[in-house]
Amino acid sequence: MRVMILTAGLGTRLRPHTFSKPKPLVQVAGKPVLAHIIDDLLHLQIDELICVTGYLGKQIEEFVCQNYGHIPLRFLVQKEMRGQADAIYLANEISGPLLVVFGDGLVGIDKERLATHPSEGIIYCKEVDDPRRFGVAVVEQGRIVRLVEKPIEPVSNLAVVGFYYVPEAQRLMDAICYIMEHNIQTKGEYYLADALQVMIERGEILHAEAVPMWRDCGTVEALLDTNRYLLDHGHSLMVDGMRSVIIPPVHIAPNAVIENSVVGPYVSVAEGAVIRTSIIQNTIVNAGAQIQSVIMSGSLIGDKAYVDGISHELNIGDASDIRLG
What we know:
Layout: E1 2-6, E2 27-28, E3 31-32, H1 33-39, E4 48-53, H2 57-68, E5 73-77, H3 84-89, E6 98-102, E7 105-108, H4 111-114, E8 121-127, E9 135-140, E10 143-149, E11 158-166, H5 169-181, H6 192-201, E12 206-210, E13 213-216, H7 220-232, E14 243-246, E15 250-252, E16 257-263, E17 267-269, E18 274-276, E19 279-285, E20 290-301, E21 306-312, E22 315-316, E23 321-323
Parallel strand pairs: 1-4, 1-6, 4-5, 8-12, 14-16, 15-17, 16-18, 16-19, 17-19, 18-20, 19-20, 20-21, 20-22, 21-23
Antiparallel strand pairs: 2-3, 6-11, 7-13, 8-11, 9-10
């Protein structure tokens, strides 16, 4: 089976962090979002991992090659942001089973079932209270009959979570070709949902499979929520010898320095970060950041940022220098 991860988005809701790194490389619970996605799929038999990149795509390529070089890899560049379906169509020659993954969220799926390469397609969904913010799947008699993007009227509470399995990639590519030839767009872009709708109308059987976990990583608030979830579910890491009070769950890199501070709960501290004389909770501190004399919660601190003397919520990008009395 091939796995295709779409990573070309600009990540505007995570600025300023995504000015200097692509959204899938933003850290949560000790490693980039993209690493969480790939690591969760490693026990599948992946014949090829395809990453569709765009903005700052070289960083994606370098990270994946460095950490997953044992998998056959391919990188395709989406030069214009023309939509999800356009990104997928860059690999229009592929055939066989295909898993398409959006690179901005974490999803828990039944990988044992997927490993059997089912003969019918699967669109992974999560029941939500307010479906108006999502694309949803309408199900009748056990199969999807319609996909609706952000419905005004509630037609279904099954939100589509960004994981799609098709047993034959060429049928998906043919459907994408059709919507492009007929200029079928949503909000000025070629949406995957429109191509899947064409497949449904051609008789493709697609099932909606509910997932137990779905965590968005597209905003600061969502990223911090995902950090809390992951730390509560097996991704915490404690380090001995810190001259501080550490309140679990936390994820602290072995070479981070924490002195005379209270850190936790729900704090991730990356490689080379330094925290001194501070009280920090519910925060992600990225690599090489330096924090001192701070009371901080609900914050996201970029790589190599410097923060001295403040009691607030902060969203600080890479290489920032904040000094407030």
